[in-house]
UniProtKB/TrEMBL annotation:
Keywords: NAD, Oxidoreductase. Pfam families: 2-Hacid_dh, 2-Hacid_dh_C. It comes from Amphritea balenae. One of its GO terms (molecular function) is NAD binding. Residues 108-286 form the D-isomer specific 2-hydroxyacid dehydrogenase NAD-binding domain. Residues 19-313 form the D-isomer specific 2-hydroxyacid dehydrogenase catalytic domain. Belongs to the D-isomer specific 2-hydroxyacid dehydrogenase family. This is 2-hydroxyacid dehydrogenase.
Length: 317
């Protein structure tokens, strides 16, 4: 099997063991990144293509007669035309639940940093503010405990459940929102009823037509002024301009996001303005622990081994 990985640099920071993948392929070629103009040439003659975010559309797929399988080194499949692949007899697989612990840990880190004003205190210690204090300690920024607070979760799959488990260990009460446009599930709460009750809102749902701009000026107005929003799902679920305005106006106590609508934000973003208080932004890194990324490698190797034996493991089309 001749295989090519088009954007290894999006997964591997020279800290992963790729030998499990290499053993499954007779020929294994890796590129750190691949532009749209380079895709057709690089996959020519390949039976297996591995991509993370490189787009494989109908035209690209039609140009590769030898292609039999596509491994997506992620859960999302929006960068591959699944219908076109199926029409050509090309199977497509993804990776699943590899980053649950990594993302849940990151969400709790952001939640704790907001509640303890960790960044403000770090800056105060380093910029001389603490040295000028009249007491042994500096308590200029409010510190809150998670225990006894209410966490609302939108999207209760592996990631949402993982965050709920950790939040419970901190003594938080957890409420789960009904799925947008989905059937009513016992024990879950309509989001308009959930928002006024929560001290922290954590988002873990996919970006769909139903969840786009789910959190906006209108829904933020339903929340407590002292509430926090955390988004480790997808950019676009939160209206970024509305969130920026709410933070400036003190409508929320703070927010943290690991995702933006455009990534990387080469054209700027409303949330990157310097005058927004109590906002933490990380560069879509929540999923990226070395353990989670190694699981992706192992899952793809398992999928390819299954293909050789006629088994369909994590096939999505």
């Amino acid at each position: 099997m001749k295989a090519v990985f088009l954007d290894l640099g999006s997964l591997d920071c020279n800290d992963l063991d790729l030998s499990a993948l290499e053993r499954q392929c007779d020929s294994f070629t890796c590129f750190a990144e691949t532009s749209a103009a380079q895709v057709s040439e690089r996959i020519a003659g390949a039976e297996l293509v591995i991509v993370n975010k490189v787009v494989l559309d109908k035209e690209v797929l039609a140009s590769s007669a030898s292609l039999k399988h596509i491994c997506i080194a992620a859960t999302g499949t929006n960068n591959v035309d699944l219908q076109a692949a199926a029409a050509q007899g090309i199977s497509v697989s993804n990776c699943q639940a590899y980053g649950t612990d990594s993302v849940a840990q990151h969400v709790m880190t952001m939640m704790l940093a907001l509640h303890t004003n960790l960044i403000a205190y770090n800056n105060a210690a380093r910029n001389g503010q603490w040295a000028r204090a009249s007491q042994f300690c500096l308590l200029d920024y409010p510190i809150q405990e998670l225990s006894g607070k209410t966490l609302g979760i939108v999207g209760y799959g592996n990631l949402g459940a993982g965050v709920a488990r950790l939040a419970g260990a901190f003594g938080m009460e957890v409420l789960i929102a009904q799925r947008a446009g989905g059937d009513t599930v016992g024990g879950r709460i309509a989001i308009d009823e959930l928002l006024p009750q929560v001290d922290v809102l954590s988002l873990h749902c996919p970006l769909t037509d139903l969840t786009r701009n789910l959190i906006n000026a209108e829904t933020i107005a339903l929340m407590k002024p002292g509430a926090f929003i955390i988004n480790a799902a997808r950019g676009g679920i939160v209206n970024e301009a509305d969130l920026a305005d709410a933070l400036r106006q003190g409508r929320l106590a703070g927010a943290a996001t690991d995702v933006l609508i455009e990534e990387p934000p080469v054209n700027g973003n409303p949330l990157l303005a310097e005058d927004i208080p109590n906002l933490i932004i990380t560069p879509h890194s929540a999923w990226g622990s070395v353990q989670a990324r190694q699981r992706i490698v192992e899952q793809m190797a398992e999928t390819i081994a299954g293909l050789r034996q006629g088994e369909r493991i994590r096939i999505v089309n």
